[in-house]
Amino acid sequence: MDAKQLKSTSKFLSLVLRHQPDKIGVELDEQGWIDVETLLAAINRSGKRVTREQLNEVVETNDKRRFQFSGDGAQIRATQGHSVEVDLGYQPATPPEFLLHGTPERSVAIILETGLKKMARHHVHLHHDQATASAVGQRRGKPILLQIAAGRMHADGYLFYVTPNEVWLTDEVPPQYLSLLEVASG
């Protein structure tokens, strides 16, 4: 697949595996898994054409590693970012002292006042590296990086989880744990 096809297929998989499995008439199990053959058949019935080889390519080359196959390769799921109810089974983990969150400049004032909230997703997404946090923040405008005192939050009893693609998850980040890091360059 060329880069455009890869991106389009990845976005479609994100839609189906994170938000709207019913769009193609499938259901995810409680942990967000679906049988690969069931998924491919439903995608192809919906009018899109995706082969197992193309699906493998999307999973293997996705820069954010949004998807994972089960150990035997028979099932697939998104690794985080769901708006549909799933239990990904991640265990609490000890975060690094600081984590980052990229956000559009227009959102900074309200976030610093009220904190980070999960909104329609299951968790707030945090990152350990500036490049990833900045890339996330620039999706909707000029990115600003917020630093989260994750170590202090954890010591104060907040739970953190880490996904296979190294996205840190938590339920919320109250404003007292946030600080403005820098304006990220795009």
From TrEMBL:
<keyword id="KW-0808">Transferase</keyword>
<dbReference type="InterPro" id="IPR022928">
    <property type="entry name" value="RNA_2'-PTrans_KptA"/>
</dbReference>
<dbReference type="GO" id="GO:0006388">
    <property type="term" value="P:tRNA splicing, via endonucleolytic cleavage and ligation"/>
</dbReference>
<keyword id="KW-0520">NAD</keyword>
<dbReference type="InterPro" id="IPR002745">
    <property type="entry name" value="Ptrans_KptA/Tpt1"/>
</dbReference>
<dbReference type="InterPro" id="IPR042080">
    <property type="entry name" value="RNA_2'-PTrans_N"/>
</dbReference>
<protein>
    <recommendedName>
        <fullName>Probable RNA 2'-phosphotransferase</fullName>
        <ecNumber>2.7.1.-</ecNumber>
    </recommendedName>
</protein>
<comment type="function">
    <text>Removes the 2'-phosphate from RNA via an intermediate in which the phosphate is ADP-ribosylated by NAD followed by a presumed transesterification to release the RNA and generate ADP-ribose 1''-2''-cyclic phosphate (APPR&gt;P). May function as an ADP-ribosylase.</text>
</comment>
<dbReference type="InterPro" id="IPR042081">
    <property type="entry name" value="RNA_2'-PTrans_C"/>
</dbReference>
<dbReference type="GO" id="GO:0000215">
    <property type="term" value="F:tRNA 2'-phosphotransferase activity"/>
</dbReference>
<comment type="similarity">
    <text>Belongs to the KptA/TPT1 family.</text>
</comment>
<dbReference type="Pfam" id="PF01885">
    <property type="entry name" value="PTS_2-RNA"/>
</dbReference>
<dbReference type="GO" id="GO:0003950">
    <property type="term" value="F:NAD+ poly-ADP-ribosyltransferase activity"/>
</dbReference>
